[in-house]
Design goal:
Shape: rod-shaped
Strand content: under 5%
Helix content: over 70%
Order of helices and strands: HHH
Number of helices: 3
Number of strands: 0
Distance between the termini: 89 Å
Structural class: mainly alpha
Radius of gyration: 28 Å
Length: 88
């Protein structure tokens, strides 16, 4: 079994994105299934990276929601204060 460098794999995947995996495999002289496997692994890796980013986004949104709720409470209190002041 031949081992390929990370750079070679990345270039092969890029080439397969441009011209298709079958033509890329023929041009590079490697097995078609090898390129397909590399592409699947890349897709899996990208999904994992996206899934690790999502909790950060959710946490940021939850913080923003909490801040907005506080701001709304302050505005409600101020509205009540000014409404009482107008009645006098």
């Amino acid at each position: 079994m031949q081992r390929y460098s990370k750079e070679f794999r990345e270039e092969a995947i890029s080439l397969s994105d441009e011209i298709g995996p079958k033509k890329a495999a023929q041009q590079l002289g490697i097995n078609y299934a090898t390129i397909i496997d590399w592409r699947k692994k890349r897709k899996t890796k990208e999904k994992k990276e996206k899934s690790t980013e999502e909790p950060k986004t959710v946490e940021e949104l939850q913080k923003e929601i909490a801040e907005l709720k506080k701001a709304n409470d302050i505005l409600k209190d101020a509205l009540g204060f000014f409404a009482l002041d107008r009645k006098k």
